Amino acid sequence: GKLTYLFGDQYQQLYRFRGAGDSFEQMVQKSRVQLSLTGSFRFGAKIAKFASSILQDIDGKSITGLSTCKGKVTKEEVRMNTTSLVVLCRSNQGIFDYLIEHRPQRWCTLGGRITLKAQPWVYDLEAFLQEFLDDNTRDESTSFEYKDEVFQDIASIQEFADDEGDSDLLRYLYLLLSLVKDQQSFNKFLKYVNNSYQALSRDESYDEYKGVILGTVHKSKGLEFQRVLIYNDYKW
């Protein structure tokens, strides 16, 4: 009793001719039925099983690998400066955490460069976190001023950023927390990011790139890679 649709993206549509209609499009327009992606021709059973273990963790559904190219899933130590390794993260913060931990000699990102700016308030936030996280320097005078607000703990900064939709503050808060806990300075990290980033050249494919390609799973939609590392901000 189930109706199954096989389809691609808008660039893979069948030609419409002699009045042929798109029943999938018509069905979506006329009903409010919830549809689920249950299979893919891009990979086989092993990769599908691994993907399902992640999807279930975020309340997703199991997916079936329909490709005859089985693929391979391994849990192994990865050389972080290897050639053409694609690292997929759950969020941009995962990308920063990867860079902090592994410092690849050459890297780029999917979907455009992630920029970091050396703004004065970023250094104020860094100094606050260094004091706040050190039991020897923290006291009642430890505070961080931002947009006419005064904060005396990390939770209140996060709450303000969430309430105001301030994605910049939230991004730098999580980045600086990771750096301070690793006893690394923002200035040194900023210099590393600027010096080691090298975009793909026009005639260079992802699989030919001599370095690490970082991106979120969202940015990787519709792309294919020979070798992918799922970063540990995903749980499975």
TrEMBL record:
Gene3D superfamilies: P-loop containing nucleotide triphosphate hydrolases. GO terms for cellular component: nucleus. InterPro entries: DNA_helicase_UvrD/REP (IPR000212), P-loop_NTPase (IPR027417). PANTHER family: ATP-DEPENDENT DNA HELICASE SRS2, UVRD / RECB / PCRA DNA HELICASE FAMILY MEMBER. It comes from Entomoneis paludosa. GO terms for molecular function: 3'-5' DNA helicase activity; ATP binding; DNA binding. GO terms for biological process: recombinational repair. This is DNA helicase.
